[in-house]
Design a protein that fits this description.
This is Ribosomal protein S2. The structure is a single chain. This protein has about 375 residues and is of the alpha/beta class. The protein is about 45% helix and about 10% strand. The protein is built from 14 helices and ten strands. The termini are far apart.
């Protein structure tokens, strides 16, 4: 009796136990043996709900699929319309090209009419110095501060564009009235822009160290330089050589300085002689050193080339206006050169011939 109960107790645990109940497995086997006689779900719904008869259901099953639909006749017309639109509007728009070409800033500088905020931003004109190096007088030119670890000042490009346009008008006005403009840039890399701007404005240039006293004591420092006299058409006039030996060189009517910190002596001499000045003022410079400041980044060579080229173009426009007026006989400016009109060569040659003839006659009589 004890053995029978032990076998029954352990025998139940030894038999494999199904994972699903018997009723559920029977239902699954019975459902898998049923064959489906239709495949259209719409037909299935119609039969269940007691809808249309079998003929209508068969008609529904015979509907063509999307892949069997005939192509639309408007495809060819749409393609022809697309080709027509492409031929008509294909030339519209703009072509992407490299925006920054360093050689063009010297070979073809921008004009005053080309001054835009995009051009100034692309040339890094808005980047200033560290906030610890700023000059308080530049507060009206500063747009804001950028950075947290080493913050720098950002120059307002609206102010830069406005002040640069004003400087262009000044350079154009000076050259239009026969004035002499001096372009100064003594940093590395500024030689090309200084020479190009001076050539366009028909002025002078300086790219080496400024000799102190060149303006205040120009008779001694620049006394041995070559001098010449030109007329209103920029044609050299001879006959003033004797008078030029005693005359001092002309002082510039306007000075354009591209780097202020290194040329303080030059700016001081210009102030002593009432010579107006134009200069690029960074956030660490004193804007009172120049008469017409241009707030911009003087450490960026691209920015300096843009500003120098624009001012040179303004001087070129002024020279063209002056020569155009001169060809029409209009000279609306005066030059206080204090030179006397030389004697005509014909009178001098005639006097020499008469004197020679008199001497020859006296020699023959003897």
């Amino acid at each position: 009796m004890i053995l029978r109960s032990l076998v029954l107790r352990h025998g139940r645990r030894a038999l494999p136990r199904p994972t699903t109940p018997l009723r559920q497995s029977w239902r699954r086997c019975y459902a898998s043996q049923i064959e489906r006689t239709y495949t259209n779900p719409l037909e299935d719904q119609l039969y269940v709900e007691g809808g249309p008869d079998a003929t209508k259901a068969q008609a529904i099953n015979n509907l063509p699929s999307r892949s069997e639909v005939a192509p639309d006749d408007t495809v060819a017309a749409d393609w022809e319309f697309f080709r027509h639109q492409k031929a008509v509007t294909g030339d519209l728009g703009s072509a992407l090209a490299p925006h920054y070409k360093p050689h063009e800033l010297l070979s073809n500088p921008p004009k005053p009419s080309d001054i835009t905020l995009e051009l100034l931003m692309a040339s890094q004109s808005h980047i200033g110095h560290s906030t610890s190096l700023w000059h308080p007088a530049n507060a009206k030119y500063i747009f804001g501060v950028r950075g947290e670890q080493d913050p720098i000042h950002i120059i307002s490009l609206d102010v830069t564009a406005a002040y640069l346009r004003r400087a262009c008008k000044i350079v154009r006005g000076v050259t239009e009235r026969g004035g002499l403009v001096l372009f100064v840039g003594t940093r590395d890399g500024q030689v090309g822009v200084v020479v190009k701007a001076a050539k366009m404005a028909k002025g002078c240039h300086l790219f080496t160290k400024w000799i102190p006293g060149s303006i205040t004591n120009g008779e001694q420092i620049l006394g041995k330089c070559r001098k010449k006299v030109v007329d209103h058409l920029d044609v050299e006039v001879e006959g003033f050589e004797d008078q030029l030996l005693q005359k001092a060189v002309l002082k510039p009517d306007l000075v354009v300085c591209l780097n202020l910190p290194e040329n303080y002596i030059l700016l001081h001499e210009c102030a002593l002689n009432n010579i107006p000045t134009i200069g690029i003022v960074d956030t660490d410079c004193n804007p009172t050193w120049v008469t017409y400041p241009i707030p911009a980044n003087d450490d960026s060579l691209r920015c300096v080339q843009v500003i120098g080229g624009v001012l040179g173009r303004a001087g070129e426009e002024g020279q063209e206006l002056r020569l155009h007026k001169a060809k029409n006989g209009i000279v609306d400016y005066q030059q206080n050169h204090r030179l006397e009109k030389p004697k005509e060569k014909e009178e001098e040659d005639g006097g020499e011939e008469r004197s020679r003839g008199g001497r020859m006659l006296r020699a023959g009589d003897e």
